[in-house]
Design goal:
Layout lengths: L23 H6 L14 E7 L5 E7 L1 H4 L4 E5 L22 E2 L5 E7 L2 H10 L1 E6 L19 E2 L3 E2 L1 E4 L2 H7 L2 E9 L11 E7 L2 E6 L4 H12 L6 E4 L15 H13 L3 E4 L5 H4 L6 E9 L5 E13 L21 E10 L12 H19 L3 H7 L17 H12 L11 E3 L2 E13 L6 E6 L5 E4 L9 H13 L6 E4 L16 H22 L9 E6 L1 H5 L7 E13 L5 E11 L6 H20 L31 E5 L18 H4 L1 H13 L10 H5 L3
Parallel strand pairs: 1-14, 12-13, 16-17, 21-22, 25-26
Antiparallel strand pairs: 1-5, 2-4, 2-6, 3-5, 7-8, 9-17, 10-15, 11-12, 11-14, 15-16, 18-19, 19-24, 20-21, 20-23, 24-25
Length: 705
């Protein structure tokens, strides 16, 4: 085909159109295959054995009863498991020593011909422990081993101070000093963590439920002393992750270990009840927020101090005080993180780490300040809009929080609103409304991609992106079609395989921004090649490779963030203490919206998750035995459709030339950030009672009614 006839006209589906998800039919018909659904011939099954003590060591492991069961192949323990290289992530150093750092730590793996036999074998393994009597599992703000870390998650400084907070707070005529508690929270994606590992002629292939096959490949190569060219990790379809699949988890290491040890393909899935102990969790936080303001509502002093836990395995510090460095102008501020290592599972990423719990506390305190001032909470936020990012003094690439608040106020019918609490009533129900702002940073990471043109006029885009249910395939096809000026249906997208050009994992709301940038770059270069090409294309077509290492290595002179406003209307039953959300609405300023259909789904999903955080989701560490008490979906209630009768998502038009070629910001996490505070602020308006310990379950509410 000559360049003159090659389809380079305007695409019928440019960016901004609500295309349906490309893989939607495959998912609803069952054709999409997930990690646990790949079963090579002669596949064996592994079932892990979790430690039943809060801290200590394995004194002995008796595997005789397990090995005697028909169909059992082996039981791996720290005595016979393959040796691993030192792990960058110590949570992956499995079956390498007898230490038990927390309840639920894996101490053995039973491998058998069937999953049922593997489970029976795991239950038959007899482990004898030497238990430490002084296990320490409970977080408290005055813990004697609490310390201030130099850095927190994301590489942010642990402590930042500007001006004289103490002096300004003492002099402020209006103050708020409140402490908020967020319990441990769990990711609980629909698809549990699962891996199928298969060695063939020296090459390792792994189907893994992961948010980033490139990272899994690199970590497995390091652990098993292989070159990445000797490993292929496939994560073609992933049933959610919310951060818990952002890095390799124990099941993939155990599957590869067992496959190497037995010489057979091995499949390992993490049982739902064990996920809270081995795949990360949102760490609990105790957050003290102090605000000082003049009678005009202008904040003169702001302090946000967050205390949290980490494990003794490795340090992970939830960056809950960081959002306070972004949101509101104040000449005097202090943001501090403190952490204590406890005998608990290692916390990790969960949707909007830092921003989600941190903004719950900050936005609750802002509501309390508005009450103290007798000022509308939207007006208070507008009065404290910063001209530049408070922490860095950099100009914002775009900041339309005020626009989101105004648009949301009008759509929601915020005014006229009687600010008095406890005055709206329908029989036994008290009604109230609440609002909260939200923010999330714009994150971009280097990625690589290839754009290929075939002689038949079709294109193929290759990039190791991951679609965890967000519609990434669809949006990448739209980006490619726009850059190529070709019809969208002529573009094929190949993702989810570590043999493809390496790319940023699906996390930090950085996926489309990172992948889309490099896809746009590769497609733009391919289009130029096609325009200049003379004669028919080669038999194998034309391919252009690109990466964004140079572009992403340059620090932006701008502070780049998404913003939003969430509104909630609730009813509180004075007889039962039950809280129901009648309406939930979010308005977001998140750059150019590339696909309204998939974007709305992400916003609504985030808000639903925030509703769960406010009202139903919460876990506790057992003070005697360690581990999490609410460790399955019977004891940990994830919101269902019946919990969200009316939920809406909108966005303001935002042009930002300082982001990427698409002008887009990440949207996967901004939806959750302000929701919990909006709901709990509405509960205060309904009842006049300020509850600062979420989730607001009926037992907590009823005693105050």
């Amino acid at each position: 085909m000559s360049p003159r006839t090659f389809p380079l006209g305007p695409p019928p589906y440019p960016l901004g159109e609500p295309l349906v998800r490309r893989e939607g039919r495959e998912k609803v018909t069952g054709a999409a295959r997930y990690a646990a659904e790949h079963t090579p011939p002669n596949c064996a099954y592994g079932w892990p054995v979790a430690a039943g003590i809060p801290r200590g060591r394995v004194a002995a492991v008796d595997t005789a009863e397990a090995l005697a069961l028909p169909g059992v192949i082996t039981v791996l323990t720290h005595e016979n498991a393959p040796r691993l290289a030192a792990a960058e992530d110590p949570t992956l150093s499995l079956l390498q020593e007898d230490r038990v750092p927390h309840r639920g730590w894996y101490v053995a793996l039973a491998v058998a011909d069937t999953i049922e036999t593997a489970r029976a074998a795991a239950e038959a393994v007899r482990v004898t422990y030497e238990t430490d009597d002084d296990a320490d599992v409970l977080l408290r703000a005055d813990h004697p081993r609490m310390y201030e870390p130099e850095k927190v998650n994301g590489g942010y400084p642990g402590t930042r101070e500007r001006g004289d907070f103490e002096g300004a707070f003492a002099a402020a005529p209006v103050t708020v000093d409140a402490t908020y508690h967020v319990p441990p929270l769990h990711n609980h994606p629909m698809e549990p963590h699962a891996s199928t590992a298969h060695w063939s002629e020296g090459h390792l292939t792994v189907h893994d439920s992961s948010q980033g096959a490139t990272k899994v490949c690199e970590d497995l190569a390091a652990l098993f002393k292989l070159d990445t060219s000797e490993i292929t990790v496939v994560s073609e379809h992933v049933g959610g992750g919310f951060g818990s699949k952002g890095t390799p988890r124990p099941q993939v290491v155990l599957a590869v270990m067992a496959a190497r040890h037995t010489g057979r393909p091995v499949k390992v899935s993490v049982p739902r009840r064990e996920m809270p102990s081995v795949v990360g969790h949102r760490a609990p936080t105790i957050q003290r927020v102090r605000l000082g303001a003049g009678n005009d509502g202008v904040i003169t002093a702001l302090s946000h101090e967050s205390a949290t836990h980490t494990s003794t395995v490795t340090e992970f510090v939830e960056q809950a005080a960081v959002p306070a460095r972004v949101m509101y102008a104040s000449p005097n501020s202090r943001t501090v993180h403190r952490v204590v290592p406890l005998d608990v599972p290692t916390p990790s990423w969960m949707r909007a780490p830092g921003e989600c719990p941190g903004m719950y506390a900050l936005e609750s305190a802002m509501d309390e300040l508005a009450v103290q001032l007798g000022m509308d909470p939207i007006e208070l936020r507008m009065r404290n809009e910063p001209d530049t990012e408070p922490d860095s003094d950099r100009a914002f690439s775009s900041r339309h929080l005020v626009g989101a608040l105004r648009d949301g106020s009008e759509r929601f019918g915020w005014l006229p609103r009687d600010p008095r609490p406890g005055v709206r009533r329908e029989g036994d129900l008290l009604l109230g409304t609440g609002v909260a702002a939200s923010t999330y940073p714009v994150l971009i990471a280097a990625s690589a991609a290839e754009a290929h043109a075939d002689r038949d006029g079709t294109f193929e885009i290759r990039v190791n992106a991951t679609d965890i249910g967000t519609g990434a395939r669809t949006v990448l096809a739209q980006i490619a079609a726009g850059a190529l000026m070709a019809p969208e249906d002529r573009v094929r997208i190949e993702i989810g395989n570590s043999d493809l050009p390496p790319a940023m994992l699906a996390g930090g709301s950085a996926g489309i921004g990172s992948w889309g940038w490099v896809v746009h770059k590769a497609c733009t270069a391919l289009r130029a090649r096609l325009r200049d090409h003379v004669g028919p294309l080669p038999a194998d077509g034309l391919t252009v490779a690109a990466d964004t290492r140079q572009e992403t290595s340059e620090r932006s002179p701008y502070a780049r963030h998404s913003f939003g406003a969430t509104f909630a209307e609730v009813q509180v039953d004075t007889v039962t203490g039950e809280i129901r959300v009648r309406r939930l609405m979010g308005v977001f300023a998140a750059g150019r919206i590339l696909n309204p259909r998939t974007a709305r789904s992400q916003f609504i999903g985030g808000m639903t998750m925030g509703l769960g955080m406010a009202l139903t989701e919460g876990s506790e560490v057992d003070p005697e035995f360690g581990g999490f008490a609410g460790c399955d979906l019977a004891g940990y209630h994830v919101p269902a459709c019946a919990d969200v009768p009316r939920i809406e998502a909108y966005w303001v038009e935002e042009e930002d030339p300082h982001l990427n070629p698409m002008g887009s910001k990440g949207i996967g996490e901004i939806g959750i950030v302000g929701t919990a505070a909006a709901v709990t602020n509405a509960v205060w308006h309904a009842t006049g009672v300020r509850l600062r310990d979420i989730p607001l379950t009926p037992d907590k509410v009823l005693s105050h009614l």
